[in-house]
């Protein structure tokens, strides 16, 4: 039986797209069909997918409201298929906030949606001051000072644990290959 995964992402600086694109390639390498969409460009029928993965980045403590609206609008269809949610935020770089159960942004996000969740995870993002507009750079630097993060405005830092991203993808692959196990 053919299994198709739809990967829908919302990104501000492109890193959530990079993570979702990595998952897309991982599924293709496992010979599982997947399609990748920016949330703004998604115009497919959700029921044409067996699994939907929704990836969203956090900016200033919030996921894009379009993601929450999309999930709540489509929850009936999402509840009929396998669903996966992933959040990308810099707080995940801290060991005490690097799980879905301890990440405050992800917890807040999950409380705003009323949808079945088969797979969830949080991933640390990328910090790259030169790419940010002046105000964002200033605000992110302030947040990083408060949270004891990097304030080096010249060097990009990618905090993403790619082994963890691979593990998330592998859980989904294993579920597809033997659907009775999660």
Tell me what the structure shows.
This protein has 182 residues and is an alpha/beta fold. The protein contains six helices and eight strands, in the order E-H-E-E-E-H-H-E-H-E-E-H-E-H. Strands 1, 2, 3, 4, 5 and 6 form a six-stranded mixed beta sheet that branches. Strand 1, helix 1 and strand 2 form a beta-alpha-beta unit. Helix 1 crosses helix 6. The longest helix has 16 residues. The protein is globular. The mean pLDDT is 92.
List the helices and strands and how they pair.
Layout lengths: L3 E7 L4 H15 L3 E6 L12 E9 L2 E2 L1 H9 L1 H4 L3 E7 L15 H9 L6 E5 L2 E2 L6 H13 L10 E2 L3 H16 L5
Parallel strand pairs: 1-2, 1-3, 3-5, 5-6
Antiparallel strand pairs: 3-4, 7-8
Descriptive key words:
single chain, 182 residues, alpha/beta, 6-stranded mixed beta sheet, 6 helices
Précis, in short:
The chain has 182 residues and is α/β, with parallel strands linked by helices. It has helices at 15-29, 65-73, 75-78, 104-112, 134-146, 162-177; strands at 4-10, 33-38, 51-59, 62-63, 82-88, 119-123, 126-127, 157-158. Strands 1, 2, 3, 4, 5 and 6 form a six-stranded mixed sheet that branches. It has a two-stranded antiparallel sheet with strand order 7-8.
């Amino acid at each position: 039986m053919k299994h198709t995964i739809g990967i829908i992402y919302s990104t501000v600086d492109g890193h959530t797209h990079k993570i979702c694109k990595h998952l897309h390639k991982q599924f293709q390498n496992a010979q599982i069909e997947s399609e990748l969409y920016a949330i703004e460009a998604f115009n497919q029928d959700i029921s044409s997918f067996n699994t939907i993965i929704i990836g969203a980045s956090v900016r200033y403590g919030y996921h894009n409201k379009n993601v929450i609206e999309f999930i709540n609008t489509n929850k009936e269809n999402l509840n009929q298929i396998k669903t996966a949610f992933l959040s990308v935020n810099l707080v995940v770089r801290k060991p005490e906030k690097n799980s879905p159960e301890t990440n405050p942004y992800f917890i807040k996000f999950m409380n705003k949606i009323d949808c079945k969740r088969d797979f969830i995870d949080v991933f640390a993002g990328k910090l790259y001051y030169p790419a940010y507009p002046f105000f964002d750079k200033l605000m992110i630097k302030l947040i990083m000072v408060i949270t004891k993060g990097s304030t080096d405005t010249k060097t990009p830092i990618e905090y993403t644990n790619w082994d963890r991203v691979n593990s998330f993808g592998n859980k989904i692959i294993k579920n597809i290959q033997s659907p009775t196990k999660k």
